[in-house]
Write a structure and sequence with these properties.
This protein is of the alpha+beta class. The protein is built from four helices and nine strands.
Length: 210
C-alpha cells in the first residue's frame, strides 16, 4: 500500500468552552411551566452542571488534522490500519480521551471496519458487494449513469452503502479498536475514476483531551 502524507495542521485549542454562568440552574418540566411562579420553593434549586474555570480550561479539546493519499493496488477491500496509525502517531499520543474521524474524499470508494486477520474476509466482502450491486445493471437499463464505465455507478452505490467516514474512539493515546478489528479502504472501481489509478485521499481529524 503506497502512502503519501499531505501535511498536518494543529489547532490547539480550536474550541474554547466558556464556564457556565455563576450559580446553579433549575429545571422546570414543560408541563408545569404555567405554575412555576406559584410553586416556588425555598429549597435550593437542583444544579444541572457546574464547573470551575480551572477545570474547564484543563478539558479544552486539542485538535489535529492530517490528509494522506493511499494507492490501492486493485479493486477490492484493503487493510489500511497501519497507514492510519502511522499518519497520526505524533499527535494521538497527546490525547487521553477523544475521537478520530476518517473521511474519504471520493464517491466511488469507501471506508469500513472489519476483521483484520484472515484475508479471505476482504475477498468475500468484495464478492458480496458485487452480488449486492452487480455491474450488469449498467448494461441492462437499470442504471442511466453509464458514461464513465461499467464499474462507475455500482461504485457510487457501494460507496453510499459502506459510507465515506468512520469515527473511532481514542483511549490513552491509541485508537480503541478491538483485537480483530481493522480499517478497510474499499476501492470500488477498476480504473479508479478520472485519474486512471487508485489513489484516494483521506482526511484524518483527531480531537480530545489529555
Amino acid at each position: 500500500m503506497a502512502l503519501v502524507s499531505k501535511g498536518r495542521s494543529s489547532i490547539r485549542p480550536l474550541l474554547f468552552l466558556a464556564p457556565l454562568a455563576v450559580g446553579s440552574l433549575a429545571f422546570v418540566p414543560p408541563t408545569q411551566h404555567r405554575f412555576a411562579a406559584a410553586q416556588t420553593s425555598s429549597a435550593p434549586p437542583t444544579a444541572l452542571c457546574s464547573s470551575s474555570p480551572d477545570t474547564t480550561m484543563s478539558k479544552v479539546p486539542q485538535w489535529f488534522q492530517h490528509e494522506i493519499s493511499i494507492t490501492a493496488p486493485s479493486r477490492g477491500c484493503h487493510l489500511i490500519t497501519s497507514d492510519i496509525t502511522k499518519a497520526v502517531k505524533g499527535d494521538i499520543s497527546n490525547i487521553k480521551v477523544g475521537m478520530c474521524n476518517l473521511f474519504i474524499q471520493h464517491t466511488s470508494a469507501s471506508l469500513t471496519i472489519n476483521e483484520n486477520a484472515d484475508p479471505d474476509v476482504r475477498r468475500d466482502m468484495e464478492v458480496a458487494l458485487n452480488k449486492i450491486v452487480p455491474g450488469s445493471w449498467t448494461k441492462d437499463g437499470t442504471f442511466l449513469h453509464t458514461m464513465e464505465g461499467e464499474d462507475d455507478m455500482p461504485g457510487h452505490v457501494k460507496s453510499s452503502l459502506m459510507g465515506p467516514s468512520l469515527n473511532i474512539p481514542i483511549r490513552n493515546g491509541r485508537l480503541a479498536l478491538g483485537t480483530w478489528q481493522g480499517i478497510y479502504l474499499n476501492e470500488h472501481r477498476d480504473q479508479g475514476g478520472w485519474g486512471g489509478g487508485h489513489t484516494r485521499s483521506i482526511v484524518i481529524t483527531l480531537q480530545g483531551t489529555s
